[in-house]
Design a protein that fits this description.
single chain, about 600 residues, mainly alpha, two-stranded antiparallel ribbon, about 60% helix, chloride channel activity, membrane, ion transport, ion channel
Length: about 600
């Protein structure tokens, strides 16, 4: 039942402190979910890569406690060509017949849910997303594992908010907290996970309201994860500091290269998405066709298979990468891997298979950084260039550019290596990449800033709101969701779907205002309906919410709506309830006022 008759009311969200507590709980769940997913994925990869394809992609130091590729069979062109297609076919079946939301990158879906769907994510999505991603990456698809872990956490947050009857604002916050938890755990990046979650939803802004819940969730998920999987950062890196300022021009050159290849990546990925959306094939076959094309690329460059994080760790360790197929190495081999990774990732994720874009972005950027560093070693041996700092700086700056997330790119890399020594060059290169790529983003559902997002319709200029009186814009008011205080709660629940409302204005026999009943906070559960039918009236569970009169301002009305977490507000005059106003009514009045002022000033 609701607040007075069940556990849901006891644990309902009452304010920011409740959000903080639930963020800790969501972080705990996200940490366990990320561990379970990573365990299943690495065991799958150990079989398919080692026993079938005969290729060892390596493994980051932070994942050494998981099972990794052990004995490797001879390279098998047959499996390299066909296994990504077979995995794509299985993914196509999952996404076409069980859960369409499990296809693609995952992060863009989270961004869409935040802006346009009140943070709602179906409870089944995290499970199917995890299965689809294991099938994709385990079969050699080029993608990242952050998408499902972010969706696992986001699904926990959204589902919990739905169960508690939370409003849209609280649900969005808990969804982002879950996203931060998933990222913080899988990348072992407690601060980076939180910053990425609040920065990725906008092109030029951050969701500052959710920052503290995201930090709490990300840190909790990180601690949970490392207590099971073992402590330490994701990548093991030797100490380094920028003490030779002759290297700075090379970092600037790296920033320009990251912008150029990043722009190319965004265009290729979006083009592939558009082509596959119009391809005259059944939807369940499209990921298989994309996987077959990835297999063709992998015949030449097996290095494009998987997330690419193992290759990064091998290069950090000082290993000179050599082509598996052709036996050559050097700067241009690294550049070739980066460019072919662009195509393999675009074909994997753009065709409808499941995998993140953040991981491949790090891998592509790392290869570009290694290319610049190794070229500098050849051309300027007197500078004493070490490759791995350029590799790591390239990782952060490339992601910052393609995702329009400069702070997240910098902090995430620093967290993943457990050191902030590279922060100065990361700042230089990330800013260059972001400034130059101001019109492009890998995430199509990003919105420029919070003031253009539907999630912030409530976040209006308070000075203007306080100057607009209700009577200036409204002469009549809605009455559909006005009910008698004597109406039973069970009858109200039955009538609610037809009225399409969850909050109701309660009136007495003389049409006097009594308060508000919210079915989001008060509901008889199905198992109690027979026993409590017609025993509880709306008047017994009414919430005392202040009303406003026609002479009051929109600012006062908005303040009451936010403070009491209701979606409508009673208008009372001379003791009688004239009707009510909703959020959307206040927003429309505000927009009309702003437009009128703009026309007068034009």
């Amino acid at each position: 039942m609701g607040s007075k008759f069940g556990l849901k009311g006891v644990f309902s969200i009452q304010g920011p402190r409740s959000i903080y507590v639930y963020s800790l709980f969501i972080g705990l769940l996200s940490g366990f979910g990320a561990y379970g997913f990573n365990w299943a994925l690495t065991w799958t990869e150990s079989f398919t890569f080692g026993n079938l394809m005969g290729y060892d992609p390596g493994i980051p130091t932070g994942d050494l406690n998981f099972h990794s590729v052990g004995s490797v069979t001879p390279l098998s062109p047959f499996w390299i060509l066909l296994l990504p297609a077979f995995g794509g076919l299985l993914v196509g079946i999952v996404t076409s017949f069980f859960c369409a939301e499990a296809q693609g990158g995952g992060t863009d879906s989270l961004i869409y849910a935040f802006h346009f769907n009140e943070g709602k994510i179906q409870a089944k999505v995290p499970f199917y997303k995890a299965v689809a991603t294991i099938l994709t990456l385990g079969s050699g698809g080029s993608g990242g594992k952050e998408g499902p872990t972010a969706q696992i956490g986001a699904g926990f947050g959204s589902s919990l908010a739905g169960y508690l009857g939370a409003g849209a604002r609280a649900r969005r916050t808990l969804m982002l907290a879950g996203t931060a938890g998933g990222l913080g755990a899988i990348f072992r990046a407690p601060l980076g996970g939180a910053i990425t979650a609040v920065e990725m939803v906008y092109q030029e802004d951050i969701e500052s309201d959710s920052l503290v819940p995201c930090i709490l969730s990300s840190v909790t998920a990180y601690l949970t994860y490392i207590n099971i999987a073992g402590s330490g950062s994701l990548f093991s890196v030797q100490e380094y500091s920028l003490n030779d300022y002759r290297h700075i021009p090379l970092y600037i050159l790296l920033g320009l290269l990251c912008y150029g290849v990043g722009y190319f990546f965004v265009k290729v990925y979006h083009t592939v998405q558009d082509i596959f959306s119009k391809l005259p094939l059944p939807n369940f076959l499209k990921p298989a066709f994309g996987g077959l094309l990835v297999g063709c690329i992998a015949l030449l460059f097996p290095e494009v298979l998987g997330s690419g994080f193992g290759l990064i760790q091998r290069m950090i360790n000082g290993e000179v990468l050599e082509s598996t197929s052709f036996g050559f190495s050097g700067p241009f081999f690294l550049l070739a891997v980066a460019l072919f990774k662009v195509f393999s990732t675009s074909l994997t994720v753009g065709s409808g298979s499941s995998g993140g874009l953040l991981g491949p972005s790090f891998a592509i950027g790392g290869m570009l950084g290694a290319f610049v560093g190794s070229m500098a070693q050849v051309l300027f041996p007197e500078l004493g260039i070490t490759i791995f700092p350029f590799l790591l700086v390239g990782m952060g700056s490339f992601f910052a550019g393609v995702a329009r997330a400069p702070i997240a790119g910098m902090i995430m890399v620093c967290d993943m290596i457990g050191s902030y020594e590279l922060l100065p060059p990361l700042m230089i290169v990330s800013v260059i990449a972001v400034v130059l790529s101001h019109k492009t983003s890998i995430y199509r559902n990003q919105i420029k800033n919070r003031f253009l997002s539907p999630s912030h319709h409530w976040d209006m200029n308070q000075d203007i709101m306080d100057r607009i009186r209700i009577q200036d814009h409204f002469s009549e008011f809605r009455k559909y969701a006005m009910v008698s205080e004597n109406l039973s709660l069970t009858e109200l629940q039955s009538n609610a779907p037809g009225i399409q409302a969850s909050d109701f204005i309660l009136i007495g026999a003389g049409e006097e205002y009594k308060g508000i009943v919210s079915l989001r906070k008060n509901r008889i559960l199905p198992e109690f309906e027979a026993d409590l039918k017609n025993l509880i009236t709306c008047g017994e569970i009414v919430q005392d919410v202040p009303s406003v009169c026609i002479n009051d301002t929109l600012g006062k009305a908005l303040q009451i709506l936010l403070e009491y977490d209701v979606d409508k507000l009673a208008i009372v005059e001379d003791g009688k309830c004239l009707g009510y106003l909703r959020y959307i009514d206040l927003f429309n009045a505000y927009q009309n006022e702003v437009k009128n002022k703009q026309r007068k000033s034009a």
